[in-house]
């Protein structure tokens, strides 16, 4: 032999020169692991079968293939035969001299059939060759066949990424002789029938009798495949399958092209059958039938389930869209209703403050009560909507239940006294302790229950009883108790069959109730859902003519001494110096009635008011006057309050930090968050309550955010301290010294992470994307006494919303430097407290 040339290495595959002089090269991508998979055993490599020219080109592959006890043939990407191993010649001696290396697969097939097949018809010859090539190209699964000499071979193709392949044949005669075939036929769940090359019946297994019970007379020699197909169609298959069966019958024997893929046929009884055909080496035919009724039913169930999931998804999206539309509608209606209600209540409130004849004063009082009742109904509708959407959040605060109950009794005492009904309050000493819950929502529940009791008790007495019970597992939760509050009355009572209905929305136990007593039927529904939201429940015991008892039971934790001290400090009155001068206030409001109401309230309190009708007018007025505060309506023509606020905050002018209070008739919680995100400092809901308005002015009128007085002699505004010691002391009192270190560590980590993230994204295409992390810093810095960082993060959030890239970049630099300087103050303060 001549010297063997090493293979030329390419990218991930070897390049082998082609032995055919007519071709310059053959590309063959070989995966050696696949070749080893094809082996059944290995022996020491014998001398190579390939001739000298071939073995000099592929020494390793030739030795590898010749070591296999499996016949193997290599075929390249252009379907040219590269070569075969020694075992191939042992399996297929009839191929000797018929197959040529370098020839295409189809040319080798023609060469073989010319020498071995007695086919005189040219068209049939080409069809036979083509069928063989198609079977080769489409072969993906192992194929079992028997040679004329009785040997059973299992053929398999390993396809490689470039389209080349390794074709193998394994001798499985021992496993698949006639006896083994019989065992296979009787051991499978498929019906199996064997026909010879002329379509004559040879044998069938027992399953065929189960699948085709009306065709069992055919399962004997003397019948043909065509007889079977006709009888199956007449006795078992659905009429509409006749055309498919006719196509099967019209094929010539021996069958060259069996059904390419499993054929599914419908039965008369609605079930399904699957037919597979296999043509064996000598043209004989093996048919396999399988009842797939269950599989088709499962397939249909899956399809139905997929369709149902799709419909449910669409229904959910529709419901979410409807819910969003309803929320938007309610927000709009809240605004539209509250805007005129603001005028009504405001004017009636002012009317009650001026001297009037007794009769006129009585009329004004009655009108004010009616307007207040109407506003309560609006609030109920909004509350039930927020409960539906899960938008109500609880605000746990320390409180004394005894004080809460006494304030509620004081509220209802005059009304009850007018009716001649006795109102009693019974509490034990445990209600004088301090607990934590949401006192606002608990008050709402009790006001609803007591209001119902007053409404439905024309005579007798109403009793509010309060006490505590141990929690379910006192050992596990020693600080947790159950707060039990009962509202008992001697009123008309509720029949047993109607008691389950009264907690439903817009439902009352008797349709005449609405006509006799009024109401929407929302109060009890809201009360029950609020109690459940707080982890408790409301129960009812009642009988007609004997009165009713509503019981509220809530889990509440007791509060320690530190929290009690915080509660005491929070009740101290605000210093009188918070507002020691009249304010100059800019009012931006487009509704004339609302203008008159707010102006009258402010001027009665001694403040100066300048009024404009749009956000644009507010922007023009700010440079002309030294205002202390802005009251900004949200919905205005030309420019709304949100847009005006963003422009004010982003202006960089001296008035950019002026306190801005939103005036809005939209009472939804999400709206408040939107207002704060735009840069507003606080919100006042319409109708404007005089006391809340004055409290808000007191809260913000003396704030350092307000611009310094303008003028030649104006003194510069004193700088805010970097760290608010008083605010930090309140924080310590609230959370306790023991929990302080872990909390401070968490805050420092969170602040550092957010500031770093903001700094990394300072060059983002849209700086509005930085608003969310900047807004999170506002509350973090504010709650933990870092005053200057709180102010700086608020300015940054406003600049982000306004899209002012230059200002955002400048403020981020300031934020990084100020955070590095001020954040250690928080650690130092915490260490001083816990030392």
TrEMBL record:
It is an enzyme of class 2 (transferase). This is Sensory/regulatory protein RpfC. GO terms for molecular function: ATP binding; phosphorelay sensor kinase activity. Its EC number is 2.7.13.3. The keyword Phosphoprotein applies. The keyword Transmembrane helix applies. Pfam families: HATPase_c (PF02518), HisKA (PF00512), PAS_7 (PF12860), Response_reg (PF00072). Residues 584-701 form the Response regulatory domain. It is a multi-pass membrane protein. Keywords: ATP-binding, Cell membrane, Coiled coil, Kinase, Membrane, Nucleotide-binding, Phosphoprotein, Transferase, Transmembrane, Transmembrane helix, Two-component regulatory system. GO terms for cellular component: plasma membrane. Residues 332-558 form the Histidine kinase domain. The modification 4-aspartylphosphate is found at residue 633. Residues 295-325 form a coiled coil. Its main location: membrane. It comes from Elstera cyanobacteriorum. Gene3D superfamilies: 1.10.287.130, 3.40.50.2300, Histidine kinase-like ATPase, C-terminal domain (3.30.565.10), HPT domain (1.20.120.160).
């Amino acid at each position: 032999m001549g010297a063997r040339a090493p293979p030329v290495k390419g990218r991930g595959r070897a390049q082998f020169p082609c032995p055919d002089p007519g071709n310059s090269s053959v590309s063959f991508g070989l995966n050696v692991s696949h070749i080893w998979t094809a082996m059944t055993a290995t022996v020491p490599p014998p001398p190579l079968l390939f001739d000298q020219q071939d073995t000099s080109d592929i020494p390793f592959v030739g030795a590898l293939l010749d070591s296999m006890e499996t016949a193997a043939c290599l075929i390249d990407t252009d379907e040219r035969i590269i070569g075969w191993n020694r075992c191939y010649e042992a399996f297929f001696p009839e191929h000797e001299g018929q197959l040529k290396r370098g020839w295409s697969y189809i040319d080798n097939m023609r060469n073989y059939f010319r020498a071995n097949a007695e086919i005189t018809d040219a068209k049939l010859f080409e069809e036979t060759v083509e069928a063989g090539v198609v079977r080769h190209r489409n072969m993906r699964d192992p194929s079992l066949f028997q040679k004329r000499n009785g040997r059973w071979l299992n053929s398999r193709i390993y396809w490689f990424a470039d389209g080349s392949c390794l074709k193998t044949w394994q001798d499985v005669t021992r496993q698949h002789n006639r006896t083994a075939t019989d065992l296979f036929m009787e051991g499978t769940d498929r019906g199996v029938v064997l026909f010879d090359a002329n379509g004559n019946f040879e044998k069938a297994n027992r399953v065929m009798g189960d699948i085709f019970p009306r065709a069992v007379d055919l399962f004997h020699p003397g019948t043909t495949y065509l007889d079977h197909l006709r009888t199956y169609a007449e006795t078992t298959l659905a009429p509409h399958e006749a055309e498919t069966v006719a196509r099967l019958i019209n094929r010539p024997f021996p069958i060259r092209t069996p059904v390419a893929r499993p054929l599914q046929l419908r039965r008369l009884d609605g079930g399904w059958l699957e037919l597979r055909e296999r043509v064996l080496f000598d043209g004989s035919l093996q048919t396999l039938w399988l009842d797939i009724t269950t599989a088709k039913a499962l397939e249909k169930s899956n399809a139905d389930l997929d369709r149902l999931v799709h419909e449910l998804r669409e229904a959910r999206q529709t419901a979410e869209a409807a819910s969003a539309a309803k929320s938007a509608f309610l927000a709009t209606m809240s605004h539209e209703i509250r805007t005129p209600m603001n005028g009504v209540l405001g004017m009636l409130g002012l009317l009650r403050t001026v001297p009037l004849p007794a009769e006129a004063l009585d009329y004004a009082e009655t009108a004010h009560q009616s307007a207040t009742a109407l506003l309560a109904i609006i609030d109920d509708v909004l509350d039930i909507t927020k409960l539906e959407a899960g938008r109500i959040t609880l605000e746990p605060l320390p409180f004394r239940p005894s004080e809460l109950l006494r304030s509620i009794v004081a509220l209802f005492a005059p009304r009850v006294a007018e009716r001649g009904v006795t109102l009693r309050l019974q509490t034990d000493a445990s209600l004088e302790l301090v607990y934590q819950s949401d006192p606002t929502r608990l008050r709402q529940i009790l006001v609803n229950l007591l209001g119902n009791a007053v409404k439905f008790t024309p005579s007798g007495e109403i009793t509010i009883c309060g006490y505590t019970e141990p929690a379910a597992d006192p050992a596990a939760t020693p600080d947790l108790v159950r707060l039990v509050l009962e509202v008992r009355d001697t009123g008309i009572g509720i029949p047993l069959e109607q008691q389950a209905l009264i907690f439903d929305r817009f439902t009352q136990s008797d349709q005449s109730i609405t006509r006799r007593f009024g109401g929407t039927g929302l109060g009890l529904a809201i009360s029950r859902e609020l109690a459940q939201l707080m982890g408790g429940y409301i129960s009812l015991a009642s009988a007609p003519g004997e009165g009713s008892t509503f019981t509220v039971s809530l889990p509440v934790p007791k509060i320690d001494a530190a929290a009690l001290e915080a509660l005491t400090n929070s009740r101290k009155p605000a210093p009188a110096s918070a507002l020691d001068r009249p304010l100059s206030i800019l009012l931006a409001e487009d509704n004339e009635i609302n203008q008159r109401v707010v102006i009258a309230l402010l001027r009665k309190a001694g403040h100066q008011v300048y009024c404009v009708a749009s956000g644009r007018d507010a922007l023009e007025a700010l440079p002309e006057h030294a205002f202390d505060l802005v009251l900004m309506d949200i919905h205005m023509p030309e420019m709304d309050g949100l847009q005006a606020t963003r422009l004010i905050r982003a202006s960089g002018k001296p008035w950019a930090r002026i306190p801005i209070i939103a005036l809005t008739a939209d009472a939804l919680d999400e709206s408040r968050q939107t207002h704060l995100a735009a840069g507003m400092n606080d919100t006042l809901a319409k109708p404007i309550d005089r006391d809340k308005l004055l409290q808000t002015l007191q809260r913000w009128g003396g704030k350092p955010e307000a611009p310094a007085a303008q003028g030649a002699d104006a003194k510069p505004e004193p700088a805010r301290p970097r760290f608010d010691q008083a605010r930090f002391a309140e924080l310590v009192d609230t959370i306790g010294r023991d929990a302080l270190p872990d909390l401070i560590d968490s805050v420092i980590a969170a602040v550092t992470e957010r500031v770093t993230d903001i700094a990394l994204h300072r060059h983002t295409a849209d700086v509005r994307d930085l608003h969310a992390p900047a807004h999170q810093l506002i509350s973090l810095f504010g709650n933990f006494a870092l005053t200057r960082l709180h102010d700086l993060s608020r300015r940054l959030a406003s600049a982000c919303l306004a899209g002012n890239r230059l200002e955002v970049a400048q403020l981020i630099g300031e934020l990084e430097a100020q955070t590095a300087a001020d954040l250690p103050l928080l650690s130092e303060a915490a260490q001083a407290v816990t030392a």
